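Sorry, I am new here, but would you mind making up a protein's amino acid sequence and the tokens describing how it folds?
***
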Amino acid sequence: MNILLIFASNLCPNQINISEFSANDTIYLFPLTSNNDITLNIISRLKDFKTEIINTTILINETSDLVSSQYIKFIGELPLKIKSKNLLEWFKLNDNTSLWWFSKVCEKGTFDTDTFNSLVQFDTIINFIRTFDINKILYGTLNHKIKISLIKYCEDNHISFEISKTKDTNPLKTRFLKSQRFLFIKHIILMIYCMRNIFIRSQQIKKTVKDLNRKKAKENSFLIVTPFPSLDLKSANQGIYKNKFFGNIHEAIEEKGIDIIWCAMQIIHHNMTFKNSLEIGLKLIKGGNIIYFLEEFSTIILQIKAFIRTIINGLKFLLIQDEIKKAHNINGYNFYGILRDDFYSSFIGGNCYQGILFYDLFCRLFLKVGTQKGLYIFEQNMWEKIMISASNRDAKTKMYGYLQGTISPMQLKYFNHPNEITYNGKYSMPKPYMIICDGAHPARLLSNCGWPDSVVKVAEATRYNYLKEYLHIPINSKDNVILIALSIGILENAAIVETAYLAFKDKPEIEIRLKPHPFTDLEAVLKLAGISKEDLTFKIIGGGIADALRDAKILIAGETGVAVESLAFGCRVVLINNPQWINLSSLRGIDSPLIKTVNSSEELYTVVKDCLVEDCNLERDKFEANRILGDFFYLDNASDYPKKFIELLDL
């Protein structure tokens, strides 16, 4: 009999049921963790049987390339697969807008949710079962999404399925969020929690700004929608708004005598409280900046209406859930169990409630400001599509999306199936008037998935103007400092930190510095990685990223754009493939001697050690850095003024 043991680091090896194993059995070990200690413990437990360790790191990351295009196509076609009435109609918000476009399912997030990652792992498991004719599965992880879909597959294919005991050290809140039972009740509770939080935030914002007389904008004013706070604090304390996302673009607009109206989208900032961010907003408004917080347009009546409409949409979803489930077939298996939680969130829970409410808030914003043009950060998040839908309803504001930073082929939310882009009929996808990319590389990725050349344009990477200084000075040899730069995604961060910790925990001779992302909770990352802060030997640093990169010889990073920026500073970049989380780096697949990819903690240590002692070809490294950065970022060496950007905005 061929047995497949799927496990993560929380498996209890001593409680694996081996009573039914025989000498003729082959047990394939399928780790979903980088921690080799757990694998060695399992081998010790199964020493009397024939075992084989599967290199899941390579298998899973190879599978991700194949499944990503299939998944994009599946989501693009799914609304039309429901026979009675397509999903766009079922979840219509009004005669022109569908809640489908605001859903987590449609968003296809890959670093803020584990849905796609779980699908890739599941597909890898199914292919292995088929290739090696598996008769029995032992399942020892806490990924309930995979478990649900795997149980269904085993029932359909007459494969024995058994759950092995695992340790669950997660707090009650995390267990509740991960639970796949009683989803209707769970998401109603989460929706009420979301409703409560928005109500409290909106009341705090209103209390802060209620007595302010904001400057009246000129008729040709320009709207910029931005996450808040992301600004230069020193300038903000003097009432001067310098937004970090837009570089000097807003300054160039103001130089033309055009007033900027800012719409602030509050985000969690772990170095600043909500109260502090409001105080900064107040200083900026008093300094003459025209700033509206989106949630100040909220009212109790709007929230009650959004609550009622969420319940109605939830009942609609339950009515057609079986049809939706049947449509989830890919590669000969059904994977609805992996997306089910996202569906409940999208059409019953907080995601649905927020989509309905924010649509009304954006409609009020556009009627208030009355601008003809606007700019926002293009990341294909839920709120962006809500905003564009609202901008098209009454005000008819042309919204320009600014794709600043880097994107990876694995960041699926940036990409659509061509039929989503080309369809312009009823309930069509909310699309920006233009997408302005800060380099040829991201523009090429968008064009490849169907965006027309008339929409995708390239302009100055103003946020990265500072890199020009470093690109034109020689790369000098550096001290042996290794920098780990975290992204905003907590799940990816945990996988990278765990692999790096296993590689260097007993290597005090190597100096490791860890730079958290300002919007990420480091304690939550360490807890997810199973590492206590006391055991972590890495030096946690703050400050600006440029200062950190100047000192580093090697950068270890994932999805963050810092990986690309680091090349200007003469850093070598090491990317990590691991079985628990797919490689989301923008540099993934780019062939260069400056970029290394490793598949284990042991390999990470070896590659880093070799990089520290090898003689660098400084001239070649400078050429490579300029080549890669020149493709990712359009940096105008003649001027810092965003001439092309302003021309595209037609101001």
Q: What stands out?
A: The radius of gyration is 25 Å. The CA atoms of residues 40 and 278 lie 52 Å apart. The chain has a mean pLDDT of 91.
